[in-house]
Write a structure and sequence with these properties.
By secondary structure, the chain is α/β, with parallel strands linked by helices. The chain is built from six helices and nine strands, in the order βαβαβββαβαββαβα. The protein has one domain: Aminopeptidase.
């Protein structure tokens, strides 16, 4: 099974992005299993689209996008991607649809209930939430869904927001919720295992 897992580079005042830090930690701790491709995407809509479409041409059975959500106290498994291009962080303001004439929204095709339950079983806080906003997190989620729909290709697609990692909160002296880098790395490994149809239990090694 071929799975693409993506994260974002740092933006604004954040010198790190918890999605990328967690993904890097996951690779260090669990290694790179067969069939898994990872990417770090820029925080710029046009560059993001160029990179994303090039990657999707490789053909994947599942795509899991990750992003950072400061202030969140749990992992958010997002349900809806909307056809809105909001404000890009590094490229000024851009309003309107992401794709002219395209559907208003797409729904996640990931097994959200199973992902949430498996994360809870591993004592990692997670919840199913409504949508990924109107910025680049939503954009990468929507554009991936629409790319596959327009080509009638089957692919499980979803987006997950991560809280800040504890190091970010301490380094920036913020009074904000966080999870450790290792907890978020484990969360990615669990989600990938679920997508691969593997059992996740104390006796089953992750990403075997």
């Amino acid at each position: 099974m071929k799975i693409l897992v993506t994260a974002f580079e740092p933006y604004d005042q954040w010198s790190e992005n918890s999605s990328w830090e967690a993904l890097s930690e996951m690779l260090k701790v669990y290694g790179l299993p067969e069939g898994l491709t990872t990417r770090r995407y820029p925080v710029d809509l046009e560059r993001l689209k160029e990179r994303l479409y090039k990657d999707l041409e490789l053909g994947f059975d599942a795509v899991l996008h990750l992003g950072q959500s400061p202030g969140s106290s749990s992992i958010h498994l997002e349900t809806i991607a909307v056809n809105i291009a909001g404000v890009t962080y590094n490229g000024g303001q851009l309003y309107g649809p992401l794709v002219d004439g395209a559907p208003t929204a797409y729904q996640s095709s990931l097994p959200l209930n199973q992902l949430r339950d498996q994360l809870h079983d591993e004592r990692i806080p997670a919840s199913i939430t409504y949508h990924a906003g109107t910025y680049l997190c939503n954009a990468v989620f929507y554009l991936t869904q629409h790319w596959h729909a327009a080509r009638h290709r089957k692919c499980q697609v979803g987006f997950t927001h991560f809280p800040l990692i504890t190091d970010q909160v301490v380094d920036n002296r913020r009074d904000m919720p966080s999870l450790t880098k290792l907890e978020l790395a484990k969360a990615i490994a669990i989600m990938v295992s679920v997508l691969r149809g593997q059992s996740v239990s104390p006796n089953a090694p992750l990403l075997a």
